[in-house]
Design a protein that fits this description.
Layout (H helix, E strand, L loop, with lengths): L2 H13 L8 H11 L4 E8 L6 E14 L2 E8 L18 H12 L4 E8 H4 L10 E14 L4 H7 L2 H17 L2 E5 L3 H12 L3 H5 L13 H8 L5 E8 L2 E11 L2 E9 L8 H16 L4 E3 L5 H6 L2 E12 L2 H11 L1 H15 L1
Parallel strand pairs: 3-4, 9-10
Antiparallel strand pairs: 1-2, 2-3, 4-11, 5-10, 5-11, 6-7, 7-8, 8-9
Helix pairs in contact: 2-9
């Protein structure tokens, strides 16, 4: 293990243990799989006296469409999994301004987007000096499950429709065969079985599965397995007559379980295996009484159905201080802009 890898991981373990998707191995696997030929900016700032890391931001610039505008967008590496919190120790919050000042002069970007910023870290954005960027801040939610209340109480809190859907799915499965569930600790066996499921999923067919091989490279999940340190990874499966139907992959950090990925074979979709597996894992954690929170990972209607706890978060868009970004910011503020977007979306659907 190199010194920078050791220092990097120690920094996150001590100060930001919940940012599992920013560990050295995770980022390495992600970049090997997804970030070919992209501009990557990794900032590591150290305290001059102790030489300990006080800030570590893994950033990337991607070319994308932003509300109808082609842009170069700055975002966290691995955006979409876990939080986008700025890993900066609180009393070194002036680092935010220094980093974005450097980015403004050394990197070509128009928009910066950070989807999930916790309220504990959110105040760091205030340290950006006026004139460097323009901020747009919107409220967002992170849906979770309180694992301390007991499964019977949890199920009683769910909607009548939800409970009926669970009963219907169970009855359908029982008519077809025998349902069973299992947590597999052997990561090699778990990865192999999960890949078997993923290959028959709709995500794989669309190329959006973490088992998808992009440009003939190894998939993200395979890279993650090969690189190392997988002791905190968790795989649960649902079977029907010993045939695996779905898997749930997550990470355990302290007393929190973070959902990373759920997938099922399309041929078993009528049995709602994903829903049944979610319920079984939640029930299992509640009975074990070792964890307190089941983190579903941000917003989404299907996540809301399972949630009985909401953590407030923020979504932040930063417009760079250049002409093109200023034009985008100005246009998006106009009332007619949203009307045009709605019209185009309705026309596209037709």
């Amino acid at each position: 293990m190199s010194k920078i890898q050791k220092d990097w991981d120690n920094f996150f373990v001590i100060n930001f243990p919940y940012l599992y998707s920013k560990t050295y191995n995770w980022l390495t696997a992600w970049c090997l799989s997804y970030e070919k030929d992209k501009d990557i900016f990794v900032y590591v700032l150290r305290d001059r006296a102790t030489m300990k890391i006080v800030a570590a931001l893994p950033l990337i610039i991607v070319k994308t469409n932003f509300g109808g505008f082609p842009v170069r967008k700055l975002e966290m590496i691995g955006r979409g999994i876990g939080c986008d919190d700025f890993p900066i120790i609180d009393f070194h919050s002036e680092c935010v301004d220094k980093i974005f000042s450097h980015l403004a002069s050394h990197a070509k970007w128009h928009i910066a987007e950070f989807s999930r910023i916790s309220n504990d870290i959110f105040h760091l954005i205030d340290n950006l000096k006026k004139g460097k960027v323009q901020n747009i801040i919107t409220h967002s939610k992170n849906y979770c499950v309180d694992l301390t209340i007991g499964y019977e109480n949890y199920l009683a809190e769910r909607s009548k429709k939800f409970r009926q859907n669970v009963r219907t799915a169970n009855n359908r499965c029982k008519k077809y065969g025998t349902i069973s569930y299992k947590v597999i600790d052997d990561k090699n066996i778990a990865f192999k079985m999960a890949k078997e499921i993923a290959i028959e999923s709709w995500q794989y067919k669309q190329g959006s599965s973490h088992f998808s091989e992009i440009d003939f490279k190894k998939s993200f999940m395979e890279n993650l397995l090969n690189i190392g340190s997988i002791s905190t990874y968790y795989f649960a499966f649902i079977f029907i007559d010993r045939t695996p139907m779905a898997y749930l992959f997550g990470v355990i950090k302290n007393d929190v379980f973070y959902v990373v990925d759920v997938s099922f074979k399309d041929t078993y979709s009528r049995f709602s295996p994903g829903m049944l597996l979610y319920c079984w894992v939640i029930k299992n954690f509640m009975s074990e009484k070792q964890l307190s929170v089941f983190d579903l990972g941000g917003e989404g209607e299907y996540k809301k159905v399972y949630s009985n706890m909401i953590k407030d978060e923020q979504k932040i868009i930063l417009y760079n201080n250049n002409l093109y970004a200023s034009i985008i910011h100005f246009v998006r503020k106009q009332k007619i802009y949203s009307k045009i977007l709605r019209f185009l979306k309705s026309k596209y659907k037709k």
